[in-house]
């Protein structure tokens, strides 16, 4: 088992490896919170605990989760990426335009992916190699892409004219009629990257670079390249979430993804990923996504105005992170 | 190449490392000039010298952090270059820096295999092997540590052991220890020495960088001394005495480590402390006179630093009064404390004293900045002149007033901090461990400065855990234990025994 670095506390040799790993996981607390939320909302609304509703929540959370994988990896490497919302809107344009022009889903996907790679590459190049603060770089990118989208679309949506069945399915239909496809895709990506972060040398390098870049450099790691790759991963993940969103919307919408980056960041930090790098896990991030998704769904059923949902979400994020921080400080 | 191989065959033992004629210069400074260093397998080679002598530069070249400008490096007889940290490691050189280079969020086992994680056939990391091998490595060096613990939770001494285990994991043949004991307790030092001997018994050559004489005499086989970037001597340790080593290091004899130019203290009370109590302190009362050095001694946890911080208004007090020059000091108020003329020369220069990234002149003028203001602007010319006068007077060695202070040696940094308070016109200066991290030569200069300040009529309160400077410098000595004053001696009646007896409560 990976002796996960994300988590405080130690284990003795006398307990089994698995138990030791679970014991030091703060993810336990997140799982318990989810159960508590589910229990609470099941009590307050009879519609909450139904297959239909729960799978809906999964579907709603899946876009945040996919982009969250990339953003969490960037955070763990000690950098920040807040350009994902604009990128989500931007990639829909080459996707829809190329599909409209060629009639091919694959060419459309390739075009979208290309844009995602370029944007992630620019973010990574400027942050890792040129050394500009990544908050500034990706903030700039957020404006540039949004402005570009407005300019290109003339502030209207570009509809999907050829209406490919395959394109419709990925964002709107359900696996075996039950689980939305985006949720399946999110789960598969999550498992792949959880494996990468724990079992591939690259994943450990990301933790090392974020944990202490100087040590990583002394150990001979290509610190800049590792960070660069993290940004590219984040660009690709945001692109995938953008493709799914475009499918759901059936068009490239100029207003898509506004504020999305903050939903993602909220889920990532709620899941215990530290802004200062080196700390956190993708599992935690995924649980953070679920907590926020269940909250918004459950609070919506309480007929609570959305304004109040925002306030409550904000309070919960701050409390959760403060709690984390205190625990970490006590652990030394 | 064949000739070399033949030579290697005839010579009994090829040195694991031979550096010859190493040169390195930085803009404006020659850091190393024609330095030689040859190691022997299974031996400890001490590298000594004052701060700025070139020790750090030399080991950074060995670590691959700096490139050399001149000279050759041979590893096991073969000429080589060290193109970077990773390359140096590959060639079997492991440097354990003073600042431990481990990732604190990782487990011990993870850190040990940081350079290269063992992977299975699919390229997946083999965590079971990592855990097993890490345990085996610690058995080899004879040290027990929980390999699944998060590294950051371990004490420095154990983190050092992790670094050593890491050296073994990388099959290093040369291990460099950079001032390894600077934050260890005596027991931990003993343990470290056991482990170092274990390393040499495995045939590893160890470079031991230090300026602590007793340690070097205990652990080293050979010692090389550098001074001002030049090679001064390389001798078996048996050929050295304390005196010859110091002489090599500072290039002159120190006849009088504690010069005394001042006369009798005046009878003017500069600071009066009455019944001060805090969470850690109990009923502390004493007076200090102008022109006097009052030494405070105490073991760890005796409350010296707490007292220092309380009387300069840094920390709150629960009871008692403090008066500077007859005027009452409001507790927990450093602003008025400084304006009354009392300030602290902290023991934590980097954390509480210096603005590392800023130049000497800004660090020096900080406290007195207001006095250089003219119509809301700083008169930089006057500021510069004032700073320069202290640089000259205190013989602060810096390439210029605008040098970033982090590039100065510890002794010179300390002088700048002292100058900061004098520029502000303080009459009472509390110095906490004034020579911590400062080498022998600079120590005597600091002592001379403190003596000079007292001669000029300042009152000096010196908190120290170093017996020689306590006895050498103080006019009177107060001993603390568990937050109380447990003894008070005049200069004449104080002896090491009396002081220690009073300190052990």
TrEMBL record, chain A:
The chain crosses the membrane at residues 28-49, 61-78, 98-119, 126-145, 175-196, 226-246, 252-275, 282-302, 308-326. Its main location: membrane. GO terms for cellular component: plasma membrane. The keyword Kinase does not apply. It is found in: Cell membrane. GO terms for molecular function: transmembrane transporter activity. Keywords: Cell inner membrane, Cell membrane, Membrane, Transmembrane, Transmembrane helix, Transport. Pfam families: BPD_transp_2 (PF02653). InterPro entries: ABC_transp_permease (IPR001851). It is a multi-pass membrane protein. PANTHER family: ABC TRANSPORTER PERMEASE PROTEIN YPHD-RELATED-RELATED, AUTOINDUCER 2 IMPORT SYSTEM PERMEASE PROTEIN LSRD. The complex is composed of two ATP-binding proteins (LsrA), two transmembrane proteins (LsrC and LsrD) and a solute-binding protein (LsrB). Part of the ABC transporter complex LsrABCD involved in autoinducer 2 (AI-2) import. Probably responsible for the translocation of the substrate across the membrane. This is Autoinducer 2 import system permease protein LsrD. It comes from Bauldia litoralis.
TrEMBL record, chain B:
Its main location: membrane. GO terms for molecular function: ATP binding; ATP hydrolysis activity. The keyword Transport applies. Residues 17-253, 252-505 form the ABC transporter domain. It comes from the Bacteria. It is found in: Cell membrane. Keywords: ATP-binding, Cell membrane, Membrane, Nucleotide-binding, Repeat, Sugar transport, Translocase, Transport. One of its GO terms (cellular component) is plasma membrane. InterPro entries: AAA+_ATPase, ABC_carbohydrate_import_ATPase, ABC_transporter-like_ATP-bd, ABC_transporter-like_CS, P-loop_NTPase. It is a peripheral membrane protein. Belongs to the ABC transporter superfamily. This is Ribose transport system ATP-binding protein.
């Amino acid at each position: 088992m990976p002796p996960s670095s994300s988590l405080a506390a130690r284990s003795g040799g006398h307990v089994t490896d698995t138990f030791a790993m679970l014991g030091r996981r703060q993810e336990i607390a997140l799982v318990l919170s989810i159960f508590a939320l589910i229990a609470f909302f099941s009590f307050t609304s009879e519609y909450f605990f139904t297959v239909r509703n729960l799978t809906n929540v999964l579907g709603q959370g899946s876009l945040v989760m996919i982009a969250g994988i990339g953003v969490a990896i960037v955070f763990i490497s000690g950098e920040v990426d807040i350009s994902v919302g604009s990128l989500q809107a931007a990639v829909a344009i080459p996707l829809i335009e190329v599909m409209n022009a060629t009639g091919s889903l694959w060419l459309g996907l390739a075009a979208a992916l290309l844009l995602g790679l370029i944007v992630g590459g620019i973010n990574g190049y400027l942050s890792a190699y040129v050394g500009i603060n990544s908050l500034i770089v990706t903030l700039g990118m957020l404006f540039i892409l949004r402005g570009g989208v407005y300019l290109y679309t003339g502030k209207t949506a570009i509809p999907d004219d050829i209406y490919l069945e395959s394109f419709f399915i990925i964002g709107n239909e359900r696996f075996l009629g039950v689980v939305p496809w985006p949720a399946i895709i999110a789960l598969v990506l999550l498992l792949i990257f959880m494996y990468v972060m724990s079992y591939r040398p690259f994943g450990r390098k990301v933790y090392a670079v974020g944990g202490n870049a100087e040590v990583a450099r002394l150990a001979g790691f290509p610190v800049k390249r590792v960070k660069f790759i993290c940004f590219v991963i984040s660009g690709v993940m945001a692109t995938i979430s953008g493709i799914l969103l475009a499918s759901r919307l059936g068009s490239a919408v100029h207003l898509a993804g506004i504020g999305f980056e903050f939903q993602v960041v909220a889920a990532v930090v709620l899941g215990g990923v530290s802004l200062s790098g080196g700390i956190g896990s993708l599992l935690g991030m995924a649980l953070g996504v679920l907590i926020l998704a269940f909250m918004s769904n459950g609070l919506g059923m309480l007929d609570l105005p959305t304004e109040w949902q925002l306030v409550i979400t904000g309070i919960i994020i701050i409390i959760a992170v403060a709690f984390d921080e205190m625990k970490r400080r006590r652990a030394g | 190449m064949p000739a070399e191989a033949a030579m290697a065959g005839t010579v009994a033992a090829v040195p694991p490392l031979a550096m010859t004629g190493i040169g390195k210069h930085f803009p404006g400074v020659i850091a190393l000039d024609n330095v030689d260093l040859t190691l022997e397998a299974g031996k400890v080679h001490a590298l000594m010298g004052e701060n700025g002598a070139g020790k750090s530069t030399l080991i950074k070249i060995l670590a691959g952090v700096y490139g050399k400008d001149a000279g050759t490096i041979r590893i096991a007889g073969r000429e080589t270059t060290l193109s970077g940290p990773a390359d140096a490691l590959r060639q079997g050189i492991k440097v354990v820096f003073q600042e431990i280079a481990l990732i604190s969020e990782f487990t011990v086992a993870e850190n040990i295999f940081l350079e290269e994680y063992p992977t299975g056939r699919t390229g997946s990391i083999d965590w079971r092997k990592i855990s097993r091998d890490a345990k085996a490595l610690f058995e080899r060096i004879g040290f027990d540590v929980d390999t699944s613990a998060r590294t950051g939770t371990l004490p420095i001494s154990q983190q050092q052991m992790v670094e050593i285990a890491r050296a073994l994991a990388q099959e290093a043949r040369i291990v460099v220890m950079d001032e390894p004991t600077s934050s260890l307790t005596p027991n931990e030092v003993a343990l470290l020495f056991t482990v170092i001997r274990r390393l040499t018994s495995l045939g590893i050559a160890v470079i031991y960088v230090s300026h602590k004489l007793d340690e070097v005499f205990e652990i080293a086989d050979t010692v090389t001394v550098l001074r001002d970037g030049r090679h001064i001597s390389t001798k078996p340790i048996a050929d050295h005495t304390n005196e010859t080593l110091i002489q090599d290091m500072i290039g002159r004899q120190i006849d009088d480590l504690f010069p005394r130019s001042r006369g009798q203290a005046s009878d003017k009370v500069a600071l009066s402390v009455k019944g001060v109590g805090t969470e850690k302190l109990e009923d502390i009362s004493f007076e200090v006179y102008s022109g006097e050095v009052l030494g405070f001694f105490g073991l760890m946890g005796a409350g010296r630093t707490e007292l220092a911080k309380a009387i300069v208004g840094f920390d709150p007090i629960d009871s008692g009064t403090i008066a500077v020059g007859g005027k009452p000091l409001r507790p927990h108020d450093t602003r008025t404390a400084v304006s009354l003329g009392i300030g602290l020369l902290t023991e934590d220069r980097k954390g509480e004293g210096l603005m590392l990234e800023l130049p000497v002149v800004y660090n020096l003028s900080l406290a007195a900045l207001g006095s250089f203001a003219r119509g809301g602007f700083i008169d930089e010319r006057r500021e510069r002149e004032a700073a320069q006068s202290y640089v000259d007077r205190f013989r602060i060695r810096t390439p210029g007033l605008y040098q970033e202070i982090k590039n100065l040696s510890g002794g010179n940094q300390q002088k700048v901090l002292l100058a900061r308070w004098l520029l502000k016109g303080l009459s009472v200066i509390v110095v906490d461990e004034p020579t911590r991290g400062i080498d022998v030569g600079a120590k005597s200069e600091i002592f001379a400065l403190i003596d000079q300040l007292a001669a000029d009529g300042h009152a000096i309160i010196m908190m120290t855990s170093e017996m020689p400077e306590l006895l050498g410098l103080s006019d009177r000595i107060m001993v603390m234990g568990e937050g109380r004053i447990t003894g008070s001696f005049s200069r004449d009646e104080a002896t090491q025994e009396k002081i220690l007896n009073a300190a052990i409560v």
